[in-house]
UniProtKB/TrEMBL annotation:
Catalyzed reactions: glyoxylate + L-alanine = glycine + pyruvate; glycine + 2-oxoglutarate = glyoxylate + L-glutamate
Annotated GO MF terms: alanine-glyoxylate transaminase activity; glycine:2-oxoglutarate aminotransferase activity; L-alanine:2-oxoglutarate aminotransferase activity
Subunit text: Homodimer.
PANTHER family (alphabetical): ALANINE AMINOTRANSFERASE (PTHR11751), GLUTAMATE--GLYOXYLATE AMINOTRANSFERASE 2 (PTHR11751:SF373)
Protein name according to UniProt: Alanine aminotransferase 1
Family: Belongs to the class-I pyridoxal-phosphate-dependent aminotransferase family. Alanine aminotransferase subfamily.
């Protein structure tokens, strides 16, 4: 007798309550509009290549040769690929005797982990042990492995910054833990306020929550700030005294758009994650090679150095200009206030919604920032993410957008946003009706 499929009520409760705003209501509506023929600018996800950014040449050459090693036996390979890319491909293939189709060590290929450790040592100025390096299929998988290791039950709490990247709230819910939010201070450029953080920890413990770890995102997502050295030093002291595992999300460490607050790593090693990593058997091998190339790029004197350096510099300089254009554009709009995007790839402006707009949102059954972002999407095709998807203080509203659209498109995009916003504000501050 055939078994009936699982009913919704039989699914894992942790999965059912998990939310992920970046691919939520706004994204689904944007996809519908795109199918209907409307031009959509997807600024909801940090997806550079989808918005026209060209990939760096050298890493693609190396991985192409590793994926198709028979090219290395072609007598004309030197006409198609530079000598340093050929040498690097042979270097990585020697580390992976089974090629890219074979599993690697669950922690990643030892030689590439050594390259990552060497990069960290160059960056931070003191030794790094490759045996404590774990390569994962992107940062999200690493976050999930760590949270899966730390969380035992619903009484285990994880301190997470608000606004936060929703991966954290989703993963904590999935693994059955408790999110303990601490608020970043928007007026202090999204910095850390340890008086409030200590109070948050005390309140959580009074409710029976064991606070086991603290997440920081630096440079910030969605907030785009770079933490000051003073904040980071206080952070390390705080985690040490409170006996907390520090989970430092430093994905965007190379994406810095100002010189006053450089990126400083809050590096700290942790143990007992090998079993969790082993469940996945092997991280993606081509991805490991990309990692190796990025932490060990062409050096001065290498054939590919000038091209790699020029491409990287061009991308970062353009992002720096776009960060300024977007911040200035938002701050020129009525009832919009935005901190400068110091790093990462996002802008998180505060939208000061009139009371009548908030009332209209309630009548429509929407959160106020969702209501605003949907109106923006319908009017302009600009797809963003409401601030409520990341967490924000009660009665304060934001949206998150990337700074990734093509630089030449920025004036038109910001003009379109300004025209929509100023019309929206006039409509809801005045006496006209929808």
């Amino acid at each position: 007798m055939a078994r009936k499929p699982l009913d919704y009520e039989e699914l894992n409760e942790n999965v059912k309550k998990t939310q992920y705003a970046v691919r939520g209501e706004l994204y689904l509506r944007a996809s519908e509009l795109q199918k209907e023929g409307k031009k959509i600018i997807f600024t909801n996800v940090g997806n550079p290549h989808a918005l026209g950014q060209k990939p760096l040449t050298f890493p693609r050459q190396v991985v192409a040769l590793c994926q198709a090693p028979f090219l290395l036996d072609d007598p004309n390979v030197g006409l198609m690929f530079p000598a340093d890319a050929i040498a690097r491909a042979k270097h990585y293939l020697s580390m992976a005797p089974g090629g890219l189709g074979a599993y690697s060590d669950s922690r990643g290929i030892p030689g590439i982990r050594k390259e990552v450790a060497d990069f960290i040592q160059r960056r931070d100025g003191y030794p790094s042990d490759p045996e404590l390096i774990y390569l994962t299929d992107g940062a999200s998988k690493g976050v999930m492995q760590m949270l899966n290791t730390i969380i035992r039950n619903e009484r285990d709490g994880i301190l997470v910054p608000v606004p936060q990247y929703p991966l954290y709230s989703a993963a904590i819910a999935l693994f059955g833990g408790s999110l303990v939010p601490y608020y970043l201070e928007e007026e202090a450029n999204w910095g850390l306020d340890f008086v409030n953080i200590r109070q948050t920890v005390s309140e959580a413990r009074s409710k029976g929550i064991t606070v086991r770890a603290m997440v920081i995102i630096n440079p910030g997502n969605p907030t785009g700030q770079c933490l000051s050295e003073a904040n980071i030093k206080e952070l390390l002291q705080f985690c040490y005294h409170e006996n907390l595992v520090l989970l430092a999300d430093e994905v965007y460490q190379q994406n810095i758009y100002q010189d006053e607050r450089p990126f400083i790593s809050a590096r700290k090693t942790v143990d007992e994650i090998y079993k969790v990593a082993s469940i996945a058997l092997s991280p993606n091998v081509p991805g490991q090679i990309f990692m190796g190339v990025m932490v060990n790029p062409p050096k001065p004197g290498d054939i590919s150095y000038l091209k790699f350096s020029s491409e990287s510099k061009s991308i970062l300089e353009s992002l720096r200009r776009r960060a300024r254009m977007m911040t200035d554009g938002f701050n020129s709009c009525r009832n919009v206030v935005c901190n400068f995007t110091e790093g990462a790839m996002y802008s998180f402006p505060q939208i000061r919604l009139p009371p009548r707009a908030i009332e209209a949102a309630k009548r429509a059954g929407k959160a106020a920032d969702v209501f605003y972002c949907l109106k923006l999407l319908e009017a302009t095709g600009i797809s963003t993410v409401p601030g409520s998807g990341f967490g924000q203080k009660e009665g304060v509203f934001h949206l998150r957008t990337t700074i990734l659209p093509a630089e030449e498109d920025f004036p038109a995009i910001m003009s379109s946003f300004k025209n929509f916003n100023d019309s929206f504000m006039a409509q809801y501050e005045g006496y006209s009706r929808m």
